Amino acid sequence: MILGLTGGIACGKSVAGRTLGEQGVWVLDADEVSHYLTNYETSVIDAVVAAFGPGILSEHGQIDRRALADRVFAHPPERAKLEQILHPPIKEVLANVIHYGREKGCNIAVIAPLLIEANFQDMVDIIWVISSEERLQAKRLRNMYGFSDIEAYRRINAQLPLREKEAYADYVLLNNGSLEDFKRQLLDTWEQTVKDFAKR
After folding, report:
1. Which long-range CB contacts under 8 A does 173-182 form with residues at least 24 apart?
2. Residue 130 C-beta-side C-alpha neighbours within 13 Å
3. Which label site among 72, 114, 121, 150 has the fewest CB atoms less than 10 Å from its CB?
4. Are 30 and 17 contacting, i.e. CB atoms less than 8 angstroms apart?
């Protein structure tokens, strides 16, 4: 089974990935794939620099992801340009790993914040959307990254509204309480997902 795991920023996708990994699920994180490509894949690095200029490079000649993120989240057309560069190679990597996993009969969770926006949902069998109250998302972003309120809400609003994402979901998980409650919900939902998928 290939599970697509998406949701809003700071809603708990990473916690979900770790929890599923502890259950023996292969966890494939689209953000980690993106980081790898922008660090090591020459064709991707060259395309990003060509699109945004050498100003997005660090003093060591690597793409400064924070500087690039600050730029694209402040200007939606710039973000769209970056996504046009990154989404095709990310999808190719995900597709290759998923193909291998299917051949091995493995359960895989694909964590992709932009699963719906990037039209990656055709690669998965089941979709989980992790949702949370917007004020809690903003609070977590302030605590985790030191974002200002403006920065936090800019990141939140850059994604498809959670209610629209939920319309694509087979299961919606709400992360508005304690970490323990959320982990319990994850395990219960995973157990139910496995049972439901086996009936297909």
Report:
1. 173/7, 173/12, 173/16, 173/128, 173/129, 173/130, 173/131, 174/131, 174/132, 175/11, 175/12, 175/15, 175/130, 175/131, 175/132, 175/136, 176/132, 176/133, 176/136, 179/15, 182/12, 182/15
2. 29
3. 150
4. no
Name the one residue in this structure whose structure tokens are 């994850």.
186
CATH number at residue 137: 3.40.50.300
pLDDT digits (tens, 9 = 90+) for 120-161: 999 999 999 999 999 999 999 999 999 999 999 999 998 999
174: domain range? 2-198
Please give the tally of structural domains in the chain.
Answer: 1
From CA 161, how far away is CA 84, in angstroms rounded? 20
Cβ contacts of 153 within 8 Å, gap of 6 or more: 134, 138
| Closest alpha carbon to 189 in 8, 15, 9 | 15
DSSP 110: E
How much is the CA Rg of the chain, to the nearest whole Å?
Answer: 17
pTM for the model: 0.91
Q: Are 95 and 122 in contact (CB under 8 A)?
A: no
Contact 31, 111 (CB under 8 A): yes
Q: Tens digits of per-residue pLDDT, 166-196?
A: 999 999 999 999 999 999 999 999 999 999 9
